[in-house]
Input
Amino acid sequence: MRFDLDGLDVFFPYDRVYLEQHQYMRSLKQSLDAGGHCLLEMPTGTGKTVCLLSLITSYQFANPSAGKLVYCTRTVPEMNHVVEELGTVLAYRAEQLAIAEQQTADVEMEDISAENGESGLSEANSDGAVRPKKKPKRIVGKPKRGREHTLGPIATAKGAGGSGVLALCLSSRRNMCIHERVMAESDREAVDAACRSMTASWVVEQAKNRPGSMETCSYYNNFQEAGEATTMPSGVYDLEELKKWGQKRGWCPYYLTRQAINHANILVFNYQYMLDPKVAKMVSKELEAESIIVFDEAHNIDSVCIEALSVTINDRGLEQATRSLGRLSTEVKNIKNSDSQRLQEEYQNLVNGLIDQGLLDPPANDSSLASNALAPDVLNESVPGNIRRAEHFIQFMKKVVEHLKTRLRSVAGPNGGVKSETPLAFLHRMTNGTSLEAKPLRFAYSRLSSLLRTLQVSNLDDFNSLTYVADFVTLLATYSEGVAKFAIIMEPNGSSVPGASDPVIQLSCLDSSLAIAPLFKRFGSVVITSGTLSPIDLYPKLLQFEPCVSESLTMSTFRPCIRPLVITRGSDQLAVSTKFDDRNDLGVVRNYGAMLVELCSVIPDGVVAFFTSYSYMESLISEWDAIGILRDLTKAKLVFIETKDVVETTLALDNYRRACDCGRGAVFLSVARGKVSEGINFDRHYGRAVIMFGVPFQYTLSHVLRARLEYLQTHYQIREQDFLNFDALRQASQCVGRVIRSKTDYGLMIFADSRYNRHDKRSKLPKWILQFLGEEYLNLSTDMAIQHVRQFLRIMGQPIDQKALQSVLLTVEEANLMNPAVPTISEVAGEGGAMITESSG
Output
């Protein structure tokens, strides 16, 4: 449908639109018109992605001055889904524009005929006979769907979207490489290393000078030789289409896409390409200020920002850093003997400063590092003299590594223990203990990058531990002044394995606004959206920005397709909770097990259960096995369990779906904050119910968390309990939200903990869940909940009332009528002003 939204011509690729979709697009347009940032929460399964793409691409079409659309996702499957939806949106727009153009041509022909006195319906032959006049053919029919019509290069005269749109997605080499040998590597690091070993500038140059001496990538060589000819035609390219295009032309898709970013209208990639300074510098630095940035599924965006600026160092990493420095020292000696001119040129470049020597903009194919933080003086000044020479810098880093080893030994020793320091205090002890100056530390990461390029190191992964140390001291020195936005936490045992000794030093970022603040400052419109942003008023405080639009939408329904239930006690009336004091109580363990067995006995197909942690899930399963509950559970459904191994979990999910497809039914035991809770949808029969065992609070004894809570309380006046409740409830909402994916879908959301019955907990759930959570569904025992489950499934088992379904969908006419009324001719100029009215004469 094509409708008018407050003066904007919106191309929406479906026949009707939900009320909340219309409200969502209106809020989004208000934000774009105001040139500000926005926070939008929309129910899961109601078409948030298509709304974002339809509204923003329509806005770009109507406003050519608008910049790129940069759509940030979390996972590769989400990225591919967005690109497929985008292809559908642009194909529909192209078709509608073609129809409108044909209709305009028809009208013009009729007008010309009328001016010439000719009939628009008939024309005369030379013998005077009148025959009907042929009408031009009109384009009709539904928009073409499917990959072959919507994705890849669009061969029509006007290109994708009827306006020559170029839409690209960008991912890692592992997901984009088409070289046979590189693709055979097992993991991401090996793929990156193999690629760099064949595409680094010095490798390519040596291969040209001495053909056959070095293995190079033919796809990269062809791409380089094509030069200016490596333009991409208008189209919508997901990862598969980029690979096809690269193979067809013999060009490397990875480097082709990186070059084409500047010419693209729409970009789809991972959060890290915008938030992690190490990656963002290479990808997003050319984006114009008018660009529209979208963070989808952004409920955890504050955690992503903190992780991007945090570094953890352990004893094993420091030993590897020492070995890396030894290798660098040997390489420097070899080069001094064979090619001392190269080191001399680097020294001269460092005298000229980082910008002048081009370190901040190296050749795209060179292996380079990028700092988490580059202060203005680091960019504009020359590198300090005491680390300009390679051998001096290596000695400098050896002193840093030895000091960190000393600090770790003091923590792990008999008089050690957990210690917390501010960056300034830690830096003061480092400079006193090593006689190093603070200023050169700010250049450590950039100086290391320069040295690795000078030494022509292709496999950067061998130097990961050393880069972590350089990153650590760069961040430490950069953010040591002013308010302490970082904390140094030293723990004698940072290992998750019980009894294992693994002392660590953590440079933990406490302020999530540090990573995202440059985006709010640089770009006019940043959209943060998800299905679970409640309570929405906390995000502006955490991220330190002022949204011009902040809205949480409810769900329009033709039937109660969601049934939230709060179970506070078992059938024996004993309260159930995962509180630390109660979680290991045998009565609680038995009631949780009996609850799961009874629910699985009455709920058909798939059931997903989420636990608060891996350790708690493992302990419960062990107890259930001992008292026979697991045996009873397997009689009702097959049991699958999420583990920390990605391959095992993927296999378990695949078999879980097969069990649901064949009618046997299955239960999937998973963990809140795990992979399954974030990126996997359990729609239709794959998830008829989601059970949340407990409230998924963070581990409150974590020293890093304690430091962050203290920071939020001191600087942003966010109380400790408010943040913990907010964080736990958004995770719980994310878990139960997996169950519903469309209006015709249905599912149960079961909150199994007595604490959910408290108003301060459940009030933080999203509005679209609370609208279904009536008083009769609170404070239930297991047997009462089973009655509600039976009743709900009986109602949902009836055929869908198509008329009722149509009642929650808006037609084009209804959508147009929802626009605000156009002001009348009469208007008031203001208080005390004149009133202008149209004369009746």
Observations:
- The CA atoms of residues 219 and 252 lie 5 Å apart.
